[in-house]
Amino acid sequence: MxxxxxxxxxxxxxxxPHKPSGCFAAYSLALACVGVAFFLRLFLGVLDHEASPFTxxxxxxxxxxxxxxxxxGIFAIVGSGIFAWWAFMDPRFTFVAPLTFGRQLxxxxxxxxxxxxxxxxxxxxxLAQSLRDAEELRDLAVKELSHRLKNKVAxxxxxxxxQLRGNEASRDSILQRLGALSSTDTLIxxxxxxxxxxxxxxxxxxxxxDVSRVTxxxxxxxLAPKFALVFGLLIHELATNAAKYGALSxxxxxVSIQWTLVETxxxxxxxxxxxxxxxxxxxxGFGTRLLSRALGQFGGSAELNFDPSGLICTMNVSIPAxxxxxxxxxxxxxxxxxx
Length: 339
What we know:
Strand order of the largest sheet: 2-4-5-7-6
């Protein structure tokens, strides 16, 4: 537990904003670290008269190098060596008397060890900065691609609206599906292009309807972008069908959505009640064909059951192992709502 705590602290330390190497603030911070180490060594000397002169100065050099860079780390080495030599090496409180060979060797070992600490800390600083730069570049690329995609979707919607101005039913149906894709894309963008939570997708697609008549339950599952887009379309088709002909078309209707994840197998059940179905439709429309074929490309399946009490749709698909249940809150939806 102690080692894990220290490792977590060091990780958080090197990820914080650093002082520019060589600036006044970096040197001041290094001097403060050395000062704290000096007083800690004085206190340690009271407890153990034979303690090493350099014991408390190693952490000071590490912190100075992590926060202030290599120059501040070297400054801390010099300061630590002077203080340790003057106050904690015999003869004490003087630089005049010659040092024994053992004390000279101790100073050399201290200098070499401290330099290795500074080199390692500087590497961590550079690596952390490189990772931050890569993260910022990735975020910028995701935002730029999302912006271009939204512009293309808007252009496509304009073309469709113009070309099908005489066929309002087809026009509205296509525009709504494009809107569903755009909503899911927005969720994916909020998650930095990594995907979207299944609960967020369901929430967004059912937001235009009376949410008091919709119940959902299931683990928090994070879907990769390609799965998120497909499920966004599927939930949209089911919601649209329910609003036109199913449970959401009457005041007494209810919709229940449940999903479970067993290892990598995701199973979703969409169940409508309160709107009796007389018979299955005589022909398969676009929505029905989409439900039947969309998951086939991933080795999954969707089955429609026109039960007398209401439509039941069951979907099964194997998703990547990294789309596991998460205890995190649905950050992507929160970001979307704040945008």
